[in-house]
Amino acid sequence: MSTSSPALPASEQVRSDLLRPLLQTSWKFYVLVAFLGAIVVAALAAWVTQMTLGFGISGIRWPVYWGFYVTNFVFWIGISHAGTLISAILRLVNAGWRRPVTRCAEVITAFALIIGAMFPLIHLGRPWLAFWLFPYPSERMIWPNFRSPLVWDFFAINTYLTGSLLFLFLPMLPDFAIVRDRATGMRRRIYGVLALGWRGTPTQWHRLETAMQIMAVAIIPVAVSVHTIVSFDFSMAPVPMWQTTIFGPYFVAGAIFSGIAGLIIAMAILRRVLHLERYLHPVHFQNLGKLMLVMALLWGYFVFNERLVTYYGNGASEMQVFWRTQRLTFAPLYWTMVVCNFVLPLVIMGISRFRTITGCVIASIGVVIGMWLERFLIIVPSLGHKYLPYSFGTYSPQPVEIVITVGTFAAMTLLYVLFAKFVPIISIWELTAVQHPSPALIPPATAEHPLGETHA
Amino acid sequence: MPHRWGMAADLDRCNGCGACVVACAAENNISTVGAEQAALGRAKHWIRVERYWEGEFPDVRLKFRPVMCQQCDNAPCEPVCPTYASHHTDDGLNAQVYNRCIGTRYCANACPYNVRFFDFFNPSWEKPLQLQLNPDVSLREVGVMEKCTFCVQRIKAVTVQVAAEDRELKDGEITPACVQSCAAKALVFGDLNDPESEVSRLSHSPRGSKLLEDLGTLPKVTYLPRDTEA
After folding, report:
1. Nearest residue on chain B to A152, judged by CA atoms?
2. What pTM value is reported for the model?
């Protein structure tokens, strides 16, 4: 059964390839961690400065009370949809090619969620009182307001974060055990604790498979609900071009879209830096690229819908916002977004000759930029042009907001780098799945069998 | 029967002098933010006089509209607040509890009238303005939202007195600072549940309309535009 086809590395080879980043550390790693760490520290210092000097050092002003921070919040929660959702769907349909992809995807979810969930705190006027959002029996005898979409956010994000961490952690157990068995000293003890006593008995395998099936089914509706609820933050308020029924699915589609882009970029970097060419094949990028193409079309459909209905409805206040994004102040950003999110992925992913790893990465960078702009363009133009012309206003970001924004990208990279240092970034046991006594699983993809059909 | 506080603004009388704006700032301890911050759009005016020009030069008409919190019966700011800092009182006011506010600013985004103001810094006053602070009104620290209260401190002072004397409230007994300072008597305040009150009469006037009425916010401020609309 375990006769591997030539292109699939033997299991011993898999182990040494994938454990190498854990066991060997070059000086470049320390330089990178120090560089990213410095940016993260700068962002934290910026936040402390904002709390000390007052929120006024940000660019937020009347009447645009949400800006970069809420844009980042929606953006990072969107990026988090890459992982768990994609990984869960691919697990459910038992797509063999998923194996080297799932863990890098699930990690993105966990870290992007943690970073995204920071922003509701960062943007608070009085962040030291954020615990008032928690439903705890307090001496004030006041519960949070369960009618507020922000409280729904609190529950949705916490549920998703808990689920995603479990979903990430469960399939890491056998790999922790592999590291434990090969390590010595302190490392052996730490991974031994993390492996939770994994010994690879048939019962344990069976329980792991069952747990993963349950988690995969459970996490999909949670993921969909999270970004729908994030969209409710906007669509529940009577603000021109916010109050629309399309926001739920529009946000979910956008989230998965940007998530796939984030995943492709992460995979390309891992492949290059950790020399994983034998595991992350061009076919993985092509498959994800096709998925991104579908999401680009879906995104274009939603934007077209939203815009056309607004234009046809011709409401006075809506049209103010409409023209401000379509032709006036925000037009350069708007059309950049359309090119990045629609034209670019359509051309690059639509033509199979361009659907190379480089092509996928270029399109993904475009999508990440475009989706960030999309969130910005939903929030700021509408808030600046609500109803009464006397109270129209605008917003421009200040250094503190820019530093914190850059800091989140550094934080994401830093967390990812550290994770890849301490945990095999590709699931070892899943790649060598044919060797454990689990129920019939489709083997991993090889060059000859790009989708991982049965080829044992 | 509980009171239901409301206001009427006769735009035919308003000459845009801005006395209401000054009186409001003095009564409610609204901190000054300085010229630089005001230019950025951080000035706090719980009541403002909106100016609109109509027509082409030289046939131009200037219109004024004092805009303060409309104390909506169906207020978009209330359900969105996660901590109940923004909530409805029994006498129909949109109360803002500063101590409960954590500064999500969601209420201000949801407010179609843009009458909610965020405290970007701790309050400060240019000398000698600090000498005239009103002891009946709490100061707001950095990071909270504030807005027009219909001078709730004056409402409370009078209703407590009326209850102590065990008598009925007289119409016009309560005057918020803006109403009190309006030389043209464009602003009228009172109990909408009292059919005899001046504000009740004006709010049922055929001239009356509500600001952004079609949003369904059910405001308690009635605007009476000029009679001579051409």
Report:
1. B82
2. 0.92
Instruction: Give the ipTM.
Output: 0.92
Taking a C-beta distance cutoff of 8 angstroms, is the pair A257, A292 a contact?
Answer: yes
Residue of chain B with shortest Cα separation from A237: B110
**In terms of C-beta distances under 8 Å and separation of at least 24 residues, what long-range contacts does B37-40 make, across chains too?**
B37/A56, B37/B120, B37/B121, B40/A61
Could you tell me if A401 and A58 are in contact, meaning their C-beta atoms sit under 8 angstroms apart? yes
State the smallest CA–CA distance between residue B75 and chain A in angstroms: 10
Give dist(CA A418, CA B64) in Å, integer. 61
**Cβ within 8 Å, pair B82-A56:** no
The domain limits of chain B are: 5-223
- How many angstroms separate the CA atoms of A340 and A371, rounded? 8
Digit-coded pLDDT (tens) for A310-342: 999 999 999 999 999 999 999 999 999 999 999
Domain ranges of chain A: 11-135+147-435
Please tell me the CATH code under which domain A11-135+147-435 is placed.
1.20.1630.10
Predicted confidence at residue A438, as pLDDT, reads 45
Bridge partner list, B52: B63
Token pair 């001496």 in the structure block, residue: A139
CB contact under 8 A, B109 and A154: no
Evaluate whether the domain defined by B5-223 bears CATH number 3.40.350.10: no
Please give the backbone phi and psi of residue B64, each rounded to the nearest 5 degrees, phi first: -115, 145
Instruction: Name residues whose C-beta falls within 8 Å of residue B159's C-beta, 6 or more positions apart in sequence.
Output: B3, B169, B174
Looking at the partner chain, which of A61, A154, A387 has a beta carbon nearest the beta carbon of B112?
A: A387
